[in-house]
Amino acid sequence: MIVRLLAVLTASVISGTVFAEEVKLAVTTSFENSGLSDVLLPAIREDTGIDVQLLVVGTGQALRLGEAGDVDAILVHSRAAEEAFVAGGYGTHRREIMYNDFVFVGPIDDPAAVGIATSAADALQKIGEEKPAFVSRGDDSGTHKKELSLWRAAGLDAGSFTGWYREVGAGMGASLNTASGLNAYILADRASWLNFGNKGDLVLLYSGDPALFNQYAYLPVNPQKHPHVQNDLVAQLETWLTGERAVELINGYTIAGEALFTFNAVPK
Amino acid sequence: MVTSILPLVLENTSVRRRGKRLIGPVDYALAPEGLTIIIGPNGSGKTTLLRVMHGVERISEGRVRWAVPDEHAQHHQAYVFQTPIMLRRSVGDNLRYPLHLVKTPRAETEAAVSDWLERIDLQDRMKLQATRLSGGEKQRLALARALIRRPQVLFLDEPCANLDGASTRAIEALLSDALAAGTRIVMTTHDLGQARRLASDAVFMLHGKIGASGPAPQFFDAPESAELGAFLRGDIVA
Amino acid sequence: MNDIYEGLAAAFWLVMTLDADLIEISLRSLQVSLTALVIASAIALPLGTLLAIRRFRYRRLTISLLNALMGLPPVVVGLIVYILLSRSGPFGVLGLLFTPTAMIIAQVIIITPLIASITHQAMRELWAEYHDLLISLNTSGRQRITTLILDGRRNLLTASLAGFGRAIGEVGAIMIVGGNIDNATRVLTTAIALETGRGDFALALALGFVLIALAIGVNIAIHWLSRTEREGRW
Fold first, then answer.
1. Where are the domains of chain A?
2. Which chain A residues in 111-150 lie under 8 Å from chain C, judged by CB atoms?
3. Per-residue pLDDT tens for C210-233?
4. Which of A145, B1, B71, C86 has its CA 20 to 30 A from that of B16?
5. Domain count, chain C
């Protein structure tokens, strides 16, 4: 009996998957949730033969993964942190690829009147005055950092908020779920918002201020720090991401008829 | 023929547990032949004495000596517990088990198993799970399992407690056969009728000590102590 | 309620159409958890049995430790394995982080104490039952262990299946050490977490139903293979 059991168990255990050319790329949840990766990854594999393995994490963790050498490159959106990453010698350089934008989402009855705001700062000031429930990512991600910098730009200190300001410490999707449950305001990237399936009574209330633009940059991990990284493949990937096929796919990606990303890589 | 492991001699033997003396000091010699019955009131140390003889109870003082080294003696004894311990296996596998332990050849094992199944009248139950047998059947199986390695000495602890008359008769018949085949038997019992039917000699335990002992007829008909006399009459002996 | 209905419908549809992604992640779930189960059982079953019948110096301590480890939060296990396997960690050179192997390691650590502890409990009872007989029959230590493992196999199976249930339903640790990489380390539970994050409750629920079905299926299969039901003897 035991022998038979073990035989069956062992037979069911298939050996681990090993691919010839794989690159581990840490990306932010907002990028993955947008669905753009589903379009780009097959094209990359087709054109270059590279199998890009995405680690979907917050910007903070993505940078940590790069520092530890656990990924080959990162694609994130938090300029100050990225520059510190390169300055610290963890990345070889920072290459801007594309941007999308953040939007203010909130309950349809809009108690804080964010819908008639004139700028991002104005929208946040209205929220800060009315103090409706507001969900913050609170996970040190790029979106979270962006939100904090927007509060500062609006002359408010997010650290002093109490009660109505909920830091959930979760990814974009989970935070949107929380906002939907609480019928709260939240800052989200447009892609995640459009792809989000559990909107409930939430609607998009404000967008368009250039302050809400969200620049994505590609940072190869420094092979001098971590000799095992796939530097050649990473360079090949960068060439592809800044090339013609990428322009076409990134600019042409739409959800519900809306373009999400704008390609802005500068050719070398 | 293998050399006899008997006689067994207990010298000044006692067993203490948690500061309490369970038996002892006991001096006793188990003669090479016959069927010895151990009787006595509850808590008098019958079972402990039996376990000491079998070597499964740690002794606190004294000595327990077989005619041969212990290692050797252990291979030629068997023990039947008051509540039969059934392995969670089939009836047949319960019988095979002691033989497997000593690496008996397969053909020999199977022959012995079918022989014993017939003797204990369980030939049609060979594949049944042993734990599903009735109380009497379990005790017969336990007895067969004890005898299947042809022990020189067989110990039984109240083998017929909780059994009905028919089952008791079956057990006693098996014991008589074993005795006739030369097996030395030592058993405890509560059943004075059974003691009289089976004993060739007897031991009376009282307060952890041997209160009386000797060949059967005198032991029962002319009790050597007042307590034994009272016990045999059915009085409560404290 | 509507979500549950949609989830059931989506699950039915995914299974009926033999969705390629679903099959892939289901197989990976099975591969990871069954491998972890085999390894953990190979360690925990003899260990639990040994703890039940051997008296050694640090036995009590070992048992307490096992019971404590049983309650270890998977996330903590995940984090520790992550730090150990990270390129900057002590085992970084092996390059195991974000591979199925890393997930197996984490699951082995999570379920070994559980299996060992249940084994110990069950074996202690069986040993109490068999003790006198096995001593009387003059068995060797090896024979005792073999007998207990053989006759207690149903309890051991239960212990292993409990471990399997915990392994296949676990998400915290394997999310951290596996990274939920599509086509590489995504399994049912991490996919459920992902779809929940996307707000696609129907798909998340569908995957949940598939997970439950898989867990039940494996249980039934293992019981059937060991013929416990047919012989009905336990």
1. 2-99+214-263, 101-212
2. none
3. 999 989 998 888 878 776 544 544
4. B71
5. 1
